[in-house]
């Protein structure tokens, strides 16, 4: 494909995407296919010679869209939303067109600097602490990660490293090494510490300094038993113990961890010889949109010397509106905060801002220098590679820049408010036939409900029947063994009529089954 053909076919592709959006109501949210459907449509071997573009284009409907779950269908009520706007699609086209990789400032200055300034806009719009700004004099900063899961993993590793560093700087540490034998392989070579690692010249082995498993062997981290699965995965991959704290009903009648629960766990675990090092709070749990109250839990973390990370993957964006700012109360205690603009922020996946109180400090834990990455401004300019696992990164900030400039933040606020209002309507509608009850009060775009006087199996049967029917799509969840259905207002196209339609489908199927 040369540039002429690209101009011609690219325009057709834009039309195709716009048509897909305009006609999405004519589809169903879930495809009518079974695993392996692709084998009948796509040959096992790649073609031996290039195929004509028009042939490939003609296959998109059959191979791709017929097998797609339509996340932006007005009757898609599952998971949490994923963002979308023409402005951010444009940004992705441009990012793909520039096709650069911005791991250091030098490798693409505009990619680094636009990210820095667009995230400063976000800090202002959300009313987050000034110290999260890239332009702030202090060591705080913001970066766009790919996902909330990546941010969680980074936070755990940063907290782990900071605790290892603290322990190693204590005079008692060497005494502890000799008494316990823990880390004895490294004994005697701490004085040769350079950055991030210890080079044992005799053996050629490079040992991690900040990520020293001998020191974090007895570390334990905390999260709510309602935290997302990515937190457990982050703990597992960071090789640290995880204690899930029982969330109880409290704030907003929903599930969250109390400060007493956290305090007791820390005390008990210290008595058992463990070293608590991070509390990973959730603002807007996936199961029920519960909140770990940061203004309550933050002081405990400060007092006990724990790193505090906040995963607000879905709910965070709502803090763009004044009436939802209760979600970010206590941000001054937070070491790192993350949310997905690609969920409720009308921005296409992936765009997951993460803010650090002390990013300069944290960046040392992820730093591995190589001559080919060095540049003349590295001591003064930001090199984002030091705050992520991967080296490469793409031009994600274009999405924020285009959306905030051309769509405007008020449009996003309008979407968030409409989402919440429609969810509140659904919460009323679902009670109308007297068969259902709320599991917790509706919060933001999520309503959790179940059949009255029912068993888990009844609700599971209902949920499966609704999804088999395919007119609407939602997913279930459980909290402490109770199964319920989750209805999330996701699509920008969803109206009150769609919510009523959703209620009608649920009532019709429930009447048929029970
Ligand atoms: N955290 C919470 C609270 C979530 O609800 C989700 C996904 O819905 C995630 C993390 C994972 O998000 P990501 O796909 O960006 O890793």
Structure description:
It contains 16 helices and 15 strands. It is an alpha/beta fold and 514 residues long. The strands form 4 sheets. It has a 7-stranded mixed sheet with strand order 1-11-10-9-8-4-5, sandwiched between helices. Strands 12-13-15-14 form a 4-stranded antiparallel sheet. Strands 2-3 form a two-stranded antiparallel ribbon. The chain starts with a helix and ends with a helix. The model is unreliable at 182-194 (pLDDT under 50). Bound molecules: pyridoxal-5'-phosphate (PLP). Pyridoxal-5'-phosphate (PLP) is lined by residues 80, 147-149, 228, 230, 282, 284-286, 311, 313-314, 340, 352. It holds the Pfam family Pyridoxal_deC. Belongs to the group II decarboxylase family. Homodimer. This is Aromatic-L-amino-acid decarboxylase.
């Amino acid at each position: 494909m040369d540039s002429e053909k690209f101009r011609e076919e690219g325009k057709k592709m834009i039309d195709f995407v716009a048509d897909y959006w305009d006609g999405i109501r004519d589809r169903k949210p879930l495809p009518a296919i079974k695993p392996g459907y692709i084998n009948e449509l796509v040959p096992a071997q790649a073609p031996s010679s290039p195929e004509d573009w028009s042939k490939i284009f003609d296959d998109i409907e059959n191979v791709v869209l017929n097998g797609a779950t339509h996340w932006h269908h007005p009757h898609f009520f599952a998971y949490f939303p994923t963002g979308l706007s023409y402005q951010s699609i444009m940004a992705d086209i441009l990012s793909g067109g520039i096709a650069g990789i911005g791991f250091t400032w030098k490798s693409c200055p505009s990619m680094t600097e636009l990210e820095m300034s667009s995230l400063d806009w976000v800090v202002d719009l959300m009313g987050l602490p000034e110290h999260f700004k890239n332009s702030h004099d202090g060591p705080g900063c913001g970066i766009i990660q790919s996902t909330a899961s990546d941010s969680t993993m980074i936070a755990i590793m940063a907290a782990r490293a900071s605790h290892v560093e603290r322990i190693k700087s204590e005079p008692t540490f060497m005494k502890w090494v000799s008494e316990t034998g823990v880390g004895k392989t490294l004994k005697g070579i701490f004085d040769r510490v350079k950055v991030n690692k210890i080079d044992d010249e005799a053996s050629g082995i490079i040992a991690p300094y900040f990520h020293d498993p001998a020191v974090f062997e007895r570390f334990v981290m905390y999260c709510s038993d309602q935290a997302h699965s990515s937190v457990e995965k982050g703990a597992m991959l960071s090789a640290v113990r995880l204690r899930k704290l029982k969330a109880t009903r409290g704030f907003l009648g929903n599930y969250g961890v109390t400060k007493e629960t956290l305090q007791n766990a820390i005390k008990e675990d210290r008595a058992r010889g463990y070293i608590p090092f991070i509390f990973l709070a959730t603002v807007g749990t996936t199961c029920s949109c519960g909140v770990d109250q940061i203004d309550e839990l933050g002081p405990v973390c400060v007092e006990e010397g724990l790193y505090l990370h906040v995963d607000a993957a879905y709910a965070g964006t709502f803090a763009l509106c004044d009436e939802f700012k209760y979600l970010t109360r206590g941000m001054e205690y937070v070491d790192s905060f993350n949310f997905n603009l690609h969920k409720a922020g009308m921005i296409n996946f992936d765009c997951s801002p993460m803010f650090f109180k002390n990013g300069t400090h944290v960046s040392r834990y992820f730093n591995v220098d190589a001559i080919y990455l060095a540049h003349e401004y590295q001591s003064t300019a930001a090199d984002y590679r030091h705050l992520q696992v991967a080296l490469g990164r793409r031009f994600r900030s274009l999405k924020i820049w285009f959306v905030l400039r051309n769509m405007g933040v008020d449009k996003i606020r309008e979407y968030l408010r409409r989402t919440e209002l429609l969810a509140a309507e659904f919460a009323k509608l679902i009670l109308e036939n007297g068969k259902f009850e709320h599991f917790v009060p509706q919060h933001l775009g999520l309503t959790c409900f179940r059949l009255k006087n029912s068993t888990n199996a009844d609700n599971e049967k209902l949920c499966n029947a609704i999804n088999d029917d395919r007119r609407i799509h939602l997913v279930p969840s459980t909290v402490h063994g109770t199964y319920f259905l989750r209805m999330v207002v996701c699509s920008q196209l969803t109206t009150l009529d769609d919510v009523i339609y959703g209620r009608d489908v649920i009532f019709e199927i429930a009447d048929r089954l029970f």
